[in-house]
Amino acid sequence: MTAEQMACSHESFGANVAVNRIEDKGAFMADVQIGCTQCGLPFHFIGVPLGLSYARPMASVDCTELRVPIGPGAVRPGASGTMRFETEVRSVDLLNAIAPEGTC
Ligand SMILES: [Zn+2]
Predict the structure, then answer these.
(1) How far is the CA of 68 from the centre of ligand 1 (A)?
(2) Is residue 53 a part of any domain in this protein?
(3) Is residue 5 part of a domain?
């Protein structure tokens, strides 16, 4: 991280989403990257397992790319699993401290 990036308050963001069609798997993937447009520092995703899966979101080894399996159209709530909403806010330091090994 440069001195400029350390001093930046990260107030403006940009995102890049690449959507890929995996023909031999019949699947679609969205690869998401987010960064600060002021200093160029990439953001990392929190609480995501590392790797690549066609069944669940996962992240690159540096946690700066979220790899999300997607599909065309809408689905009914709960169709792809249990619905869960969390409202607890924790600091990033605490999240990093409690993240299981192999997660962001
Ligand atoms: Zn910044």
Answers:
(1) 25
(2) yes
(3) no
Short-list 33, 30, 27, CA closest to 45: 33
Question: pLDDT by residue (tens digit) across 33-58?
Answer: 999 999 999 999 999 999 999 999 99
Q: Which residues, 6+ apart, have CB-to-CB distance to 77 below 8 Å?
A: 83
Instruction: Determine whether 49 is exposed, middle or buried from the number of CB atoms within 10 Å of its CB (0-12, 13-18, 19+).
Output: middle
Q: How far does the centroid of ligand 1 lie from the alpha carbon of residue 44, in Å?
A: 13
Q: What's 85's DSSP letter?
A: -
Residue 55 lies in a domain: yes
Q: What is the pTM of this model?
A: 0.79
